[in-house]
Design brief:
The chain has 371 residues and is an alpha/beta fold. It is built from 11 helices and 12 strands. The strands form 2 sheets. The chain has a 10-stranded mixed β-sheet with strand order 3-2-4-5-1-6-12-11-7-8, with helices on both faces. Helix 4 runs parallel beside helix 5 and helix 6 packs across helix 11. The two termini are 25 Å apart.
């Protein structure tokens, strides 16, 4: 049974990305207008297309690791989040949300073959950090927010006092890159064309990247001023098509109404992949409930992080709330809405709505605010 007074706070966040080896380093580079395509200017002109996608989206700190890069990224994000929350990860209950798992070790490591990419990923993290129970949730690109929702429900029910939610994606393998290219959802794989432009009229697809993100959730009776509160979460699934959303996106509309129908939202964090069909349809759903909210689409800077996307957006939302500003979107030249501004903006940014949509009709969302 839920406690009528229990509230959920985010007491620690961790993020390692191609733009920074920590949450605040990544955010500082986002505020400075840095993006993944900036890296392409340093690459040789004769680089093979698939190699271009791999190099632009990779995180160098993983290259020398003996472990699967998804394990390495998750561990670093966990350690940062736990350090901020001033707790040890030893014995902590963990709910993970990632779509691929430790796929880089799958054909090379017998244990990965036996346990599968997600089981091996959880096993390696537990061995390194002494974690408690690890639950894996897979819901395509909505996986991270599905895990967040499950964690919040457990905390509200009193089944746990504190839960670590973690995600990581490091599937920059040729067959995954080529599959996205074949589906027509990847940006043009040339030095000039490999640019993600979410929310822009000239969008042609997304960039892929590696990532690791983690948040520590705690149940409290009285949040303190300045803390981040996870106000609500919601998930849904619309059985329409394995790839395309249902016309009008009714599942997304359902959770957007639940999360924003009676709330004032300062900043929207849409899934916004930068594909031709997704962005406008998705934004139209949100505008029915948050007509005046500002918008920030981080995939133009960080690339598409697959199942990690929603949790990455949540971490960025927390940092925006604390800094009272949102990063610029320098890739915008012709926004799909006149009100969408490309430049860095400051404001209160107290309340944030975060969404993720995935293949198979999986959709999820969350609302957080600065107390």
């Amino acid at each position: 049974m839920r406690s009528p007074t229990r509230q959920i706070i985010i007491s620690g966040v961790g993020l390692i990305s191609p733009l920074g080896y920590g949450a605040w380093e990544t955010f500082s580079n986002l505020l400075a207008g840095r993006t993944l395509p900036d890296r392409a200017s340093e690459l040789p002109v004769d680089l093979a297309p698939l190699e271009l996608a791999r190099v632009v989206g990779s995180i160098g700190i993983c290259h020398g690791s003996s472990s699967d890069p998804a394990v390495e990224l998750a561990e670093r994000a966990i350690r940062e989040a736990c350090m901020q929350a001033d707790i040890s990860p030893v014995g902590m209950e963990v709910i993970s949300g990632l779509s691929k798992g430790a796929v880089c070790k799958l054909p090379k490591e017998p244990l990965a073959v036996v346990l599968g990419p997600h089981g091996y990923w959880a096993s390696e993290l537990s061995r390194r950090l002494g974690l408690g129970q690890v639950i894996n949730i897979v819901a395509a690109c909505a996986s991270g927010l599905y895990a967040l929702h499950h964690a919040r429900e457990r905390l509200l029910s009193g089944k746990a006092k504190r839960i670590l939610v973690v995600t990581a994606e490091a599937a920059l393998l040729p067959h995954f890159i080529a599959s996205s290219q074949r589906l027509g959802i990847l940006a043009n794989l040339t030095l000039e064309g490999y640019v993600g432009r979410p929310l822009d009229q000239n969008r042609e697809g997304f960039m892929l990247s590696q990532i690791g993100a983690a948040v520590v959730l705690e149940a409290v009776d009285t949040p303190q001023a300045g803390q981040w509160e996870l106000c609500d979460t919601a998930v849904a699934c619309e059985a329409h098509d394995i790839i395309r959303p249902a016309p009008g996106m009714p599942g997304l509309s359902h959770i957007a109404n639940k999360l924003m129908g009676s709330r004032s939202i300062d900043l929207l964090h849409p899934h916004a992949t930068g594909t031709r069909d997704q962005d406008a349809a998705e934004l139209a759903v949100y505008r029915a409930f948050a007509a005046d909210a500002d918008v920030y689409a981080n995939k133009g800077a960080l690339g598409h992080t697959l199942g990690s996307a929603g949790l990455v957006s949540l971490v960025i939302a927390c940092l925006c709330a604390q800094a009272r500003r949102r990063p610029p979107m320098p890739w915008l030249s012709s926004p799909i809405e006149d009100a969408i501004c490309s430049s860095l903006k400051q404001g209160d940014y107290k309340s944030h709505a975060i969404f993720a949509t995935g293949f198979g009709g999986h959709v999820a969302g969350a609302v957080m605010q600065r107390i």
